[in-house]
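The record is given unchanged here:
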Amino acid sequence: MNYLGKVNVLLKEGINDPQGISILSAAHTLGFEDLTGVRAGKYLELTLFDQSKSLAEQQLHKLCSSMLTNPLIESYSLEVIEL
């Protein structure tokens, strides 16, 4: 069965986010004064073939913790959808 994994990666709370700060500053310059915070991250879509949704989720968690994120400073969330 084919599955689509949707992974969101963000810096953990308390970790400096220079990209988010730059986006916030630029937004204020453009007149978006009501914007009070920005956190930048990355979004990935991964397609995989596995025997079950549960096994696909396990594989994606393993991939996220070993390669796609730095667990010291980043956290992630994922969703798996059957294709």
About this structure: The mean pLDDT is 97.
